[in-house]
Write a sequence for this structure.
């Protein structure tokens, strides 16, 4: 038996300008937020590079991307500056590198 298909009310986009703004907002969030994280997770897998803990979709938020050189703007596409670390190892990594930075003369 075939149900008669009733089209929903069409979603009306008020103006082209509004639609563009929405697209810009979504793109901006992706770029500013987690685009390198997504790439790094794809490249290196859902696993902590330090303790070897594996992650699943429901705890993936605990897996973070560490920048080996500490520069969050250095995001080469081959992933050479990224390391996937769980929040615990990431914290550990930074408490060490903080000392390293201190010994090297601190922040720029
Ligand atoms: Zn770890
Ligand atoms: Zn880090």
């Amino acid at each position: 038996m075939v149900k008669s298909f009733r089209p929903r009310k069409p979603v009306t986009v008020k103006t082209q300008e509004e639609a563009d703004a929405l697209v810009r907002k979504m793109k901006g969030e992706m770029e500013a937020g987690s685009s390198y994280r997504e790439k790094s997770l794809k490249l290196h897998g859902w696993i902590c590079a330090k303790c070897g803990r594996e992650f699943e979709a429901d705890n993936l938020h605990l897996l973070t991307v560490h920048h080996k050189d500490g520069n969050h703007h250095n995001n080469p596409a081959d992933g050479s500056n990224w390391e996937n670390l769980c929040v615990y190892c990431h914290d550990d990594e930074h408490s060490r590198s903080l000392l390293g930075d201190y010994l090297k003369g601190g922040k720029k």
Summary: The first strand starts at residue 63 and ends at 67. The chain has one domain: 24-104. The chain has a mean pLDDT of 82. Residues 66-67, 90, 93-94 surround zinc ion (ligand 2) (CB under 6 Å).
